[in-house]
Amino acid sequence: MSESLNSKHIGEQLKAARQSKNLTLDDVQKMTKIQLRYLEAIENDNFSRLPGDFYVRAFIRQYALAVDIHPEELLGDQAPASISRTSSLSRAHRDKDDIVRARNQHNSSAVGSLISHHIAKILWIILVLIALGVIWFMTTHMSGTTDNLDNNQVSVTTSSVDKKSSTTSSSSKKQQSSTNTSKSQSKLRLSKPQINTALQTTTYSIKNGADKTHRVKIVGQNGATAVKVNTDDSTILLDQTLTAGEEQTVTIPSSAKAFNVQFTNVANAKLTVDGKSVTISGNTTIFWNVLFNLKD
Fold first, then answer.
1. Better pLDDT: 74 or 117
2. What is the pLDDT of residue 172?
3. Spans of biased composition, class Low complexity (predicted)?
4. Which 8-state DSSP code applies to residue 6?
């Protein structure tokens, strides 16, 4: 990606736009929260100094928006390659001064890289094991309760059963009708958010969300934000920059087991799932992911 960007002289265009607005690099750093040496590298078309391909694209978009240049016009028709979010996040961190800086990876071991690449799969396996444990516990507990009820059941005479059979049948039908109505009117059931600041991810579980389609709506507000939506099988449903007032709605297929919504500029986005507003992050940050696991 770096070579193709160099040929377009993106750095020269950004620098010229900055100077036309009488802005210094320090001004742009305050606006974008991008470290000064990365901004200098971008203006010099030296993209190899940035922590990875994902940050090349994201930093250029942030810089462009800060100087009122449309990112898509600057980047042209090039479609950036899909970068693993765990791989990208492992190469950068946010300091106390709210500036994004890259970690030095010269001493990273092959084992650490492998764990980072597969961390999402490991978390998914752990969640599945926990779910199986809960199902086993509930099944065992309910079985014991049923046995106790059977042992203490009061016997009734045949005549009593005959007299109440019609009433019981009617009551059963009403209960079944009520149950069906309740299911058809059930709303989105979200778990409490699990926030992982190290991975810059908020994780939700949607109860009774498996084998169903879901509508995800993203609205831009205050400023521009880059949004990417993909399912657990790496299918990309949306990859677009939204400005204030713009919105996009995507449908998650019923075959999906999970889906992730990735943001650049969290404060400039509003997220709803099946009509319910969803908290993206408790902190103001540049990059953030919202992961939804669809449960039975």
1. 74
2. 59
3. 158-187
4. H
Residues 6+ apart with CB under 8 A from 48: 2
Average pLDDT, integer, range 166-179: 55
Name the residue among 53, 29, 48 with its Cα closest to residue 39.
29
Q: Which residues of 168-199 are buried (b: 16+ CB within 10 A; e: fewer)?
A: eeeeeeeeeeeeeeeeeeeebebeeeeeeeeb
Tokens (6 digits) for 244: 């204030």
Confidence at residue 5, expressed as pLDDT on a 0 to 100 scale: 47
Q: How far is CA 244 from the centre of its chain?
A: 20
Choose among 100, 19, 9: nearest CA to 59: 100
pLDDT band at 7 (very low <50, low <70, confident <90, very high): very low
CA distance 282 to 197: 10
Burial (CB count <10 Å: 0-12, 13-18, 19+), residue 280: buried
Residue with token string 């699990």 = 194
For residues 120-138, one letter each, b for 16 or more C-beta atoms within 10 angstroms of the residue's C-beta and e for the rest, the string is: beebbeeeeeeeeeeeeee
pLDDT in tens, 210-245: 999 979 898 888 878 887 989 999 899 989 998 988
Asked whether residue 179 carries a pLDDT value surpassing 60, the answer given is no
Q: Residue 98 has which token pair?
A: 């709210």
3-state secondary structure of 9: coil
Question: How far is CA 266 from each of CA 116, 124, 227, 237, 289, rounded to the nearest angstrom?
Answer: 24, 25, 9, 19, 9
Residues 288/271, Cβ–Cβ less than 8 Å: no
Q: Helices 53-66 and 36-43, interaxial angle, to 10°?
A: 90
Kindly list the structural domains of the chain, giving each domain's residue range(s) and its CATH number in brackets, ordered by start.
2-107 (1.10.260.40), 189-294 (2.60.40)
